[in-house]
């Protein structure tokens, strides 16, 4: 049979390369010059989720990479579209999530002459990527596509960028030549070594240190979640009897209700432990940099991290460079050969469990009160109980906002791995709807529940139309307290000057009808202000598994400015 002489363009070739690389989902905003690329991808079986704004689409792509382990792909137009996409790309970089941004760009021959949406996009993305490449000719496309996908998930995951000029997108090759280009590129893919394996000597040192510790603690974060290390963590915790503390997005790797969970005794756990095994979590601001006064000055850190640079930066007592799952598997095997366990009556375990139970009882006493107008605790308790009532598979929780996220982290319970998405390492506001869409696309068997402050919701609120358009099982709960932190909290002396009659910088329209926004697109909206109204709305929305917004009226003076970060503001 004669080889096909049918011509195919770069749009189709990119789509074919992505499909061969294992990509089956894309997020983005179409327009000049990438609309055809999106259409070709859809025709090949790649689901394209079209957004209103590249920022939200980028956040979705970054979270999709975290949830699935497959790089999330963001498609943008040139110039401003690329710039908007940097939000998601930078978010992936800081959190260590695999993501690829593909952008069209101006014609190569017209660069530097003021072409339409002209920008040196390779330079623009440089601070936020592990690897970037421009396809300067159609024949380079397969290699470029495979390179960005492979680099995004190798070693410490992160963002990568592929630039495709408009003139290249219009180039063509025969179908037979395209298939040969794809075959050659695929066969020539280099297996990028993820990370080195820990040595037996390093493992022996770690076990010796843990065994001799009087007050050991295991800390784990979203790096362990990314590595799918929940099984190995469970083995380590339950074989040794060591209490554990998850970071916010590490919650759920082991159930929050586990008898060795130290979350409710966090200050005691980190303040008194003498050896801390930190797995897939960075000693950054979220963990007080591992320094006094929050931590003991004598604590010895065993840091397990995929990134050797992180070990070098933190200078722990012992650094184990490696994938969390593989490293813990080796650690557990060595412990099994010579087991030890603290036991429930161990003074350290007793101290942690007693303190945790006391703090939980105090919190439950506060939560038991029905406060109307709502504070943050009453609706959060009702939401917690409604989510727990759904059982397994547990919903994926998305949380952002100052007070809303802070209170939710303490009240809402995570029972399963990778079921909490929040502002993350960077404290990024505006991620909410993008994360919701990513979660719904990545895990269609799970309900997605967003618990958002009204300020956080506002960053991406228009994407509720995207929820309705794709009929995604997402319920968005907005804590509406009238502004950033809660309306106008200025003192009398601050209300002065020629624009003193303007609303406060922290104020929104009082009583904003956020629930009506989704109704404009055919979704379901609820306005609630009492416990019975909220329970009814949650029951109905959770059962329907359809796009919904529940607008929860909160006392504007509940909560605190900047949540728990007042010292920074």
UniProtKB/TrEMBL annotation:
<comment type="function">
    <text>Catalyzes a carbon-carbon cleavage reaction; cleaves a 2-hydroxy-3-methylacyl-CoA into formyl-CoA and a 2-methyl-branched fatty aldehyde.</text>
</comment>
<feature type="domain" description="Thiamine pyrophosphate enzyme TPP-binding">
    <location>
        <begin position="406"/>
        <end position="552"/>
    </location>
</feature>
<dbReference type="Pfam" id="PF02776">
    <property type="entry name" value="TPP_enzyme_N"/>
</dbReference>
<feature type="domain" description="Thiamine pyrophosphate enzyme N-terminal TPP-binding">
    <location>
        <begin position="13"/>
        <end position="123"/>
    </location>
</feature>
<feature type="domain" description="Thiamine pyrophosphate enzyme central">
    <location>
        <begin position="203"/>
        <end position="331"/>
    </location>
</feature>
<dbReference type="InterPro" id="IPR011766">
    <property type="entry name" value="TPP_enzyme_TPP-bd"/>
</dbReference>
<protein>
    <recommendedName>
        <fullName>2-hydroxyacyl-CoA lyase</fullName>
        <ecNumber>4.1.2.63</ecNumber>
    </recommendedName>
</protein>
<keyword id="KW-0456">Lyase</keyword>
<comment type="subunit">
    <text>Homotetramer.</text>
</comment>
<dbReference type="GO" id="GO:0030976">
    <property type="term" value="F:thiamine pyrophosphate binding"/>
</dbReference>
<dbReference type="InterPro" id="IPR029035">
    <property type="entry name" value="DHS-like_NAD/FAD-binding_dom"/>
</dbReference>
<keyword id="KW-0460">Magnesium</keyword>
<dbReference type="InterPro" id="IPR029061">
    <property type="entry name" value="THDP-binding"/>
</dbReference>
<keyword id="KW-0479">Metal-binding</keyword>
<comment type="similarity">
    <text>Belongs to the TPP enzyme family.</text>
</comment>
<dbReference type="InterPro" id="IPR045025">
    <property type="entry name" value="HACL1-like"/>
</dbReference>
<dbReference type="Pfam" id="PF00205">
    <property type="entry name" value="TPP_enzyme_M"/>
</dbReference>
<dbReference type="GO" id="GO:0001561">
    <property type="term" value="P:fatty acid alpha-oxidation"/>
</dbReference>
<dbReference type="GO" id="GO:0106359">
    <property type="term" value="F:2-hydroxyacyl-CoA lyase activity"/>
</dbReference>
<dbReference type="GO" id="GO:0000287">
    <property type="term" value="F:magnesium ion binding"/>
</dbReference>
<dbReference type="Pfam" id="PF02775">
    <property type="entry name" value="TPP_enzyme_C"/>
</dbReference>
<dbReference type="InterPro" id="IPR012001">
    <property type="entry name" value="Thiamin_PyroP_enz_TPP-bd_dom"/>
</dbReference>
<dbReference type="InterPro" id="IPR012000">
    <property type="entry name" value="Thiamin_PyroP_enz_cen_dom"/>
</dbReference>
<dbReference type="GO" id="GO:0005777">
    <property type="term" value="C:peroxisome"/>
</dbReference>
<dbReference type="InterPro" id="IPR000399">
    <property type="entry name" value="TPP-bd_CS"/>
</dbReference>
<keyword id="KW-0786">Thiamine pyrophosphate</keyword>
